């Protein structure tokens, strides 16, 4: 037995195998290599065919110059130099019949490639991704989260930019100021930086924008100087490079605030209304989205008395190719009311009289229309690609809204008509459940827009805090 084993080992080391055995080991790697090359060739051919088909069927509604001219003529709004232009992935289709076919085909392709289509997505009926985990973590946040706010005197020449507003907040960008006002009166603020999870830089983008001493183009300089000042006066920034600092901006101009503080932009947490994946300044896992809300007093209307006879509603300025596309297709439709300009009747009547309310990207994705729709019990339609929807890591948007790609504008009515009464009832029911998260209150109440925004900050805090040598308090 010992001799046989030794002989086998000797043969292995001397490569003394039968001829058929040697042939098998000779052709095996070659066969594997050829098979791999064949699979790669098939993959490239298939991908090229799909790409070629989609590219051949892409039709622009209008050329880029004519779009810009149309925008200028209809809205009298300037094309600002700092606005981002979307890439060719957002080309819009013009032919409804071809678009319907391509839309279904593209959804099938993407769904099967990435495993998104399973036919049994029952979770879409739930308003929250995981309500139990959210409630448990929310309670911990409400109990533990501490924010250190950089202090500023009332005598500061830029007190209007740095201090919370004294009067009631109004207008389209009120969320930014209402957050600051609510935070300064809340139990989250601490004067001991050793307790702080995060540090708040309280400058207001909307206030800087309207201050003639700063103006739009002076915002980056103001922010750069602000960071330099707190770096020299306080030790907090240098411990983390600003990674535990945050600021709040609701106006879309906030995306240029850190143009002259590039390193700071990479670290600082942005809590913004204009939250889109398209510009490089917004990083979803570091930054957070908050809703843009037009302040309203009182309770939401009694929805039981509203008769929703219209299928869908939109009203607004013509200030983007997407809105032009919506106008070209649905301006004269009897079921989808697409109106451009101001309404002669109260907006509330249209919100209460429509089943779906359309949010269409303008110059930027941010708008108060989503919160308006939820306030009036109208199911939102999201027509804004690259939009990081507010509280999307908490709320299941598919359960109370309809998210539609730009290219599906020509088949929008078919999409909405395909939603059964039972499905609409589920969407509207969940919309009423989550609308409390899209409202501001004075003083704030649990689960409103302020507390949900604080929860987003809580999720982005660092688990490791660097303590100072001694407790410090600044006035």
From TrEMBL:
Membrane topology, as annotated: Single-pass type II membrane protein
Annotated TM spans: 24-44
Pfam families (UniProt xref): Exostosin_GT47 (PF03016)
GO MF assignments: glycosyltransferase activity
Superkingdom per UniProt: Eukaryota
Exostosin GT47 domain: residues covered: 141-418
Cellular compartment(s): Golgi apparatus membrane
Recorded GO CC terms: Golgi membrane
Keyword Nucleus attributed: no
Family affiliation: Belongs to the glycosyltransferase 47 family.
Protein name: Exostosin GT47 domain-containing protein
Source organism of this protein record: Gossypium aridum
High-level lineage: Eukaryota, Viridiplantae, Streptophyta, Embryophyta, Tracheophyta
